[in-house]
Design goal:
The complex is a heterodimer of chains A (451) and B (116). Chain A is α+β, with helices and mostly antiparallel strands. Chain A is 26% helix and 23% strand. In chain A, the strands form five sheets. An eight-stranded antiparallel sheet of chain A has the order 13-19-18-17-16-15-14-21, with helices on both faces. A four-stranded antiparallel sheet of chain A has the order 6-5-4-7, with no helix packed on it. In chain A, strands 1-2-20 form a three-stranded antiparallel sheet, with helices on one face. With 116 residues, chain B is mainly beta. In chain B, 3% of the residues lie in helices and 34% in strands. Chain B contains one helix and nine strands; from the N terminus they run ββαβββββββ. The chains are: A alpha+beta (451), B mainly beta (116). At the A-B interface, helix 6 and helix 7 of A face loops of B.
């Protein structure tokens, strides 16, 4: 039973060790559900339990997923628990100060090994029967080990490793695919747009405070897609919030409400929209005053400062989104087809003085915290969409994604293909990429019968 | 000042209601809505919301404001000011005078004195 090479960082031979009968798994061709040329989406992709299972296998098990920020790990043993799709994972720093990630499920009877949100530890010891794993994922202790068969080898029962881990400017991503395309290639031109938030400060970024977590009724794609593509809702959905935030109480000036802007459309599902204006601004006064705009223009380029650095929105496919203006970075954790768990961090520049960081934190909470005046509007929309979408007739009527069809182009200023600020282009691309993954067997399906 | 158009008796427009004077009739090319506000006075605005195409005459008149029936933007009947999102641009006003129980509309003459 034991193998010479049972290092937990290899390609997880334990996954699929007991081959399942092919009849257990049904994969559906979703081509007819996602008409990105005509701009229509079938509502079943938000509600169907079978498709949801297929998403877990073919989207979440093979995409780069945001795990945590590097600043959450300072010493060996620091850990943070999160999810990749619905798979629980422990992210930790091992004794060599390398970031590692493991499936957070005891190899013995499968209970969640670590139940704390975050902390520091020497060992991950299961609360059920006491199997204990070290920071490298190796099984170190099995109570009453003498009762196991002679060929029982602890090396065979290491934690399941997340085989591909990579960071981009402080953000840690993981991928269950051992041969995943490198993270930087997967991000592609998206890096330029991310840099407008991640690379303002030569010292980099850090997260402050804890992680805010809240639940919403809604399919994860509703939120992820909106952050990729949807500026259209802003003046309508957020009308009252925009009025409260404005000096007059009546809303922003006409030229701000009808701002020009661009929308980045990545072929692999990422998207970012942002107004463009020559005078960049941060709504949190102390943050605006802190920034040395000429230096930022020097560092990031004029176009980045006048566009994606401020009031934009973005999604890194599939479920990591961010808002540069308030440093909100968040994951839309899927919890079944009908529920999202939002996990939101506050990102700030390391070099900011404490009072500036605190101003950004308060502004973040006021606008896009769990009870933020904008966040509440968005959550209400997604929940309203989801609440009715199991009605048979309701579910049978396609949704419209036609805005800006054919508008994607290289605009000569921003990298990659861009569309208008008001456009569904990045949303269409999000669903096109999603459908491509859904229709293609993943790494764990190679050589399996019936695939 | 432009020539007045006599819209008839004040009793022809109920309080809280509005009458549309077509662009052809008023000579501006744009429809004008004449409102009988809840303060008893008459006011006139271009009959098109500055946000998206919608008749303000079909809206809700509350006090001296009108709320667009489509996206709920509000305008001040006296000044035309946009009072809330999603409108951000003021509506054009036209002078209205009541003389001898008759409503006189002065198209293209602002209701707001230039110095105000």
């Amino acid at each position: 039973m034991s193998t010479e090479d049972s290092c937990p960082s290899k390609a997880n031979p334990a996954i699929g060790r007991l081959p399942r009968p092919a009849s257990m798994i049904t994969n559906v061709d979703v081509s007819a559900l996602v008409d990105t040329d005509g701009g229509m989406i079938d509502r079943s992709i938000y509600t169907d339990r079978g498709l949801y299972g297929q998403e877990m296998r073919r989207v979440f098990a093979r995409s780069w997923l945001f795990l945590a920020h590097e600043s959450q790990f300072k010493k060996p043993g620091d850990f943070f628990t999160t999810f990749m799709g619905e798979d629980p994972v422990i992210v930790t720093m091992d004794k060599t100060k390398t970031i590692r990630a493991y499936l957070n499920s005891c190899r013995h009877r499968g209970v969640r090994l670590c139940r704390a949100d975050a902390g520091a530890t020497k060992m991950f010891t299961c609360t059920y029967h006491g199997w204990s794993f070290d920071l490298a994922g190796a099984l170190q202790s099995v109570p009453n080990e003498k009762a196991y068969p002679e060929d029982f080898d602890r090396k065979d029962w290491s934690l399941i490793d997340v085989p591909s881990l990579a960071t981009y400017k402080g953000l840690i991503f993981g991928n269950w695919d051992p041969n995943a395309e490198p993270l930087e290639e997967s991000l592609g031109d998206m890096r330029y747009y991310m840099d407008a938030m991640l690379d303002r400060d030569p010292e980099g970024t850090e997260v402050m405070g804890g992680v805010m977590k809240w639940e919403l009724e809604g399919n994860w794609k509703l939120a992820a897609e909106q952050f990729a593509t949807d500026w259209y809702h802003v003046n309508m959905s957020h009308a009252s919030a925009l009025m409260v935030m404005s000096p007059t109480g009546r809303g922003p000036k006409a030229e701000i409400a009808a701002t020009p802007g661009r929308q980045f459309v990545a072929p692999n599902g990422h998207g970012a929209g942002f107004p463009t204006h020559p005078k960049s601004r941060f709504d949190a006064g102390p943050v605006h005053e802190y920034y040395d705009y000429p230096a930022l223009r020097e560092r990031l380029g004029d176009a980045a400062v006048e566009g994606p650095m401020t009031t934009g929105h973005a999604t890194v496919f599939p479920n990591f989104s961010y808002l540069p203006v308030n440093g909100s970075i968040r994951v839309w954790h899927p919890k079944g087809p009908d529920k999202i768990e939002v996990w939101a961090w506050i990102l700030v520049d390391k070099s900011m003085p404490d009072e500036v960081k605190d101003a950004q934190r308060l502004y973040n909470l006021r606008t896009f915290g769990p009870s933020g005046i904008f966040e509440a509007d968005d959550g209400e929309n997604w929940s309203e969409v989801q609440a009715i979408s199991h009605g048979f007739v309701t579910n049978s009527v396609p949704l419209n994604f036609q805005m800006g069809i054919g508008s994607e182009r290289n605009d000569g200023v921003y990298p990659g293909q861009t569309s208008e600020l008001y456009s569904d282009a990045a949303g269409r691309s999000f669903y096109k990429h999603w459908a491509g993954l859904m229709n293609t067997p993943a790494w764990h399906e190679q050589g399996q019968p019936g695939q | 000042m432009s020539e007045a158009i006599n819209l008839g008796s004040i009793d022809d427009i109920d309080e809280g209601e509005a009458k549309v004077v077509s662009g052809a009739e008023n000579g501006t090319g744009e429809d004008i809505a004449v409102f009988h506000a809840e303060d008893g006075n008459f006011y006139a605005l271009d009959d098109n919301c500055t946000h998206e195409t919608a008749s303000l005459a079909d809206g809700w008149i509350e006090g001296t404001e009108v709320e667009c029936p489509v996206h709920s933007a509000k305008f001040c009947l006296k000044s035309g000011a946009a009072l809330c999102m999603p409108a951000t641009i003021a509506a054009r006003t036209h002078k209205v005078v009541v003389e001898d129980g008759e409503v006189l509309l002065y198209p293209n003459t602002s209701a707001v004195p230039a110095s105000a």
